[in-house]
Amino acid sequence: MTAEEARRRLAAARVARLATVSAGGRPHLVPITFAADGDLVYTAVDAKPKTTTRLQRLTNIRGNHRVAVLADQYDEDWSALWWVRADGEAAILDDPAAMAEPVRLLAGRYPQYRDSPPGGPVIAIRVDRWTGWSAR
Questions:
Q1: Are 96 and 104 within 8 A, CB to CB?
Q2: Are the CB atoms for 41 and 47 separated by under 8 Å?
Q3: Closest CA to 41 of 108, 88, 96
Q4: CA-to-CA distance for 136 and 133, rounded, in angstroms?
Q5: Helix (H) or strand (E) holding 16
Q6: From first to last of its 136 residues, what are the pLDDT tens digits of the chain?
Q7: pTM of the full predicted structure?
Q8: Type and span of the H or E element at 98
Q9: What are the φ/ψ torsions at residue 33 (nearest 5 degrees)?
Q10: How far apart are CA 132 and CA 3, in angstroms?
């Protein structure tokens, strides 16, 4: 799969998984809503209930900026299967001016964010490697 095809498939996916690594080397994987803009992928901390406001993904990114985002499609027709991985460096945006465009992009993809925009912070991932596979 080409990098362009991987970008296209990721941008069209409704949900993905964000992988980070703790200071002790433990992988941490969470499902995310996101918006893609070329080689940038944005996800934000939103108002959905969480057990804590000290999210492990944010702690992990502060210690190690390398992350991966994975989107995939499963189908009983295995000829329709695909996955895409975007590897890159994450930054945590908490300045309202820096968060404005990513939040606008997220609200454009998810109607829930139009009524209740994510308060942030926003995780901005600059993708430096696109990989993927498709059965077709």
A1: no
A2: no
A3: 88
A4: 9
A5: strand 16-21
A6: 999 999 999 999 999 999 999 999 999 999 999 999 999 999 998 766 556 667 899 999 999 999 999 999 999 999 999 999 999 999 999 999 999 999 999 999 999 999 999 888 999 999 999 999 999 8
A7: 0.93
A8: helix 96-109
A9: -90, 150
A10: 8
